[in-house]
Structure formats: structure tokens, C-alpha cells
Amino acid sequence: QVQLVESGGDLVQPGGSLRLSCAASGFTLDYFVIGWFRQAPGKEREGVSCISSSDGSTYYADSVKGRFTISRDNAKNTVYLQMNSLKPEDTAIYYCAALIWVPARTVQAVCLMTGLSGGNYYWGQGTQVTVSS
Length: 133
Description:
By secondary structure, the chain is mainly beta. The protein is built from one helix and eleven strands; from the N terminus they run E-E-E-E-E-E-E-E-E-H-E-E. Strand 5 (46-52) and strand 6 (58-60) form a beta hairpin. The longest helix has 6 residues, at 107-112. The model has no long low-confidence stretch (mean pLDDT 94).
């Protein structure tokens, strides 16, 4: 049974840092693209960052480039999102998602859900990140 469990969400002040974790079970990361998505109240879901477990290629949304870093530890079957210089607009529920890797689909396409729908992905339950003073 495929399962993704996020952790690490918290309340943090602007300028602070958090590290989110996504632990996978029921499958190995080797053949999947793993992504972090977020959804704030009243806003559409946004692909924040994705990483291919096959070659390590990454994608970042412009809004987080230079502040967030995605990484993976295949031995632990876990993907991380290091978030620095957090801003109030980063407040959202952050979801981890997995999609089977295929050569014809780029990491960017996975994050932007190009030609895909939510039903194509495996999803975690989400973790709340709140950036506020």
C-alpha cells in the first residue's frame, strides 16, 4: 500500500526556517518523481518543488527559488524540503505527492501538472505551515 506521510509543519516567524519531511512506504523512491505542493485558503494548489529520484533533477517555482531546497535520501525513502527566509505568503498546507517517472515527462511538467490531474498522483495528508509574527 502506497503511503506518504508529511511532517515538520509549524508556526514560524517571517525570516525563519523549517524543514519538511515526506516519508514514503509501500514503494521505493527510485522510480518516482516526488513533489511538494501547497494550497492556501482561497487559492489554487501550487507546485512548489519537485525532484526526480532517477537523476536528481529538480524544479522550483519562481516564488520559492533561492529560498527552498528539495532533497532526497533514497536509503531512508524520504524527501525533504528545506525552507529558509520564510514569508507570510508561504503560509499554506503543504502536501507531498508522488508520480511514477517516465522519460518523456519532465520534472517541471510534474510540478505544473501539465497534462495531469490530481488523481494521477499519490498524495500525503498534508502539513500546515504558518508564517506569522
